[in-house]
Amino acid sequence: MKHHTPALRAGALALAAALAGCAAPQPLPFRLIDPAAKVHRGTLFPQTQRLEVAVDGLKYGGFYIVATGVAISHPMMVGPFFAPDTVTTYSSNQARAHLTAEGGPPLNCQFLFDGPRAVGECRTPEGKVYQLVAEGR
What we know:
Low-confidence stretches: 1-21
Mean pLDDT: 81
Order of helices and strands: HEEEEEEEEEE
Number of strands: 10
CATH class of one domain: Mainly Beta
CATH topology of one domain: Lipocalin
Number of helices: 1
Radius of gyration: 23 Å
Shape: elongated
CATH architecture of one domain: Beta Barrel
């Protein structure tokens, strides 16, 4: 019969807690607010980078892309040698989205996000602007 030490049990609990923290991001409700202050409700799905929202009886859906980039530093002379190149890939907190609905104009959106919060706007080709607001927990 094996006996588990308190340290082993504590380690197992810490591992379980860490794995629970790795759960998939939850869907985030958001609002689109039109120029007349009418609120349209939608959901942002971080795991698949998709959005859905109902606007005036039309169901819009589409995708978003988070801005990323690559930075390369050029080598510098370090004594008689050159230091190697450094390549860094980064992502920002800015995203762009394209949403469509059958019978409706497309919505092109830009927003900033910070954890479970987002703020930005969506526009139709005709220039109608909706404020995008998400205030998650």
